[in-house]
Amino acid sequence: MFSKTLDYSQVPSPCFVLDEARLRRNMEILDDIQKRGNVKIICALKGYSFWRSFPLIRQYLAGATASSLNEARLAKEEMGKEVHVFAPVYEDDEIDQILACAGHITFNSFSQWQRFKDKTLAAGVSAGIRVNPQYSTVETDLYNPCGKFSRLGVTEAEFKPELLDGIEGLHFHALCEQDADALEGVLKAFEQHFGKYLPQMKWVNFGGGHHITRKDYHREELVRILNDFHSRYPHLNVIMEPGEAVGWQTGELVASVGDIVHNEMDIVILNVSISAHMPDCLEMPYRPTVTGAGMPGEKKFTYKLTGNSCLAGDQLGDFSFDEPLKVGDKIIFEDMIHYTMVKTTFFNGVRHPSIGKFDEQGKFHLLHKFTYEQFKDKL
Length: 379
What we know:
By secondary structure, the protein is α/β, with parallel strands linked by helices. The chain contains 12 helices and 16 strands. Strand 7 (about 165-170), helix 6 and strand 8 form a beta-alpha-beta unit. The longest helix has 18 residues, at about 20-35.
């Protein structure tokens, strides 16, 4: 929830700003679930990677989960606790460094497992396979890990039990901003398709998408589901890796009105870009909450809020206000510290393409290669 007690006049514009008091509240909720549900909760950096807050987070959570070498390094260096890694594909020039950071690693396919099995076992890293339970109630295809033709996880038809030697865990991820009842449905499908392999495993990862810190999330139901699962498989360590639930409603993006133009209606040009700084608002799409604003026509003055890039579609939508806006007014976008902030930098920590050229004699020159330090400095 947006804090009305904070003095946003201190905040420069534009600026992502975190409220540590709200972050601690989320940590206390997650820690309560860990204790009562006998589950290990780790922070998914793809959803929340504000590493300067890790000293607070590591007081409560067991560690972090990474989706790239950059994130794995960040988790090891700044969280300093358990590091779990999953990526759809690992590459030869990065796998050694990833294994040096990780305590657990999940492979997306048996071909990837076979390719890196020897190195993984030699490094003493606990290995898992991601599976696709082929069940999900996620409504937006873009965010549905178990949708048709999904590349994420092994389906039952493609599962190869003869290649499980060395595998200690199974991992599924099928949720997106969902409640405990969605997990219960996925868990039923997971056990139906892959439950026969659980007796030989040491751990199971329930993935992310658990909206545990949301006000109306059914936390008692989650504790029941977790304890019921433990009663069936008491030997398994259970892991959950929410990202959004860590940073849920803990901070804002503070922007300002740069100009107001008119074309059939009043149009505000902000000093931020929806395309560059809030890409999830375009790709989802979803309508963020703007402090003090209402739906079009709900309040006296309606404006279209737009970004400052040259992209014609750099628009957020129509919002209404009690008072007319003027140049310099601050516009506060609520709940921007998790996925929105991550996506405006290096999403998933994936490495950016290097930049090079061929000169007129056909000789290649590498002009720039992005570094881990550049990834870290942007967070």
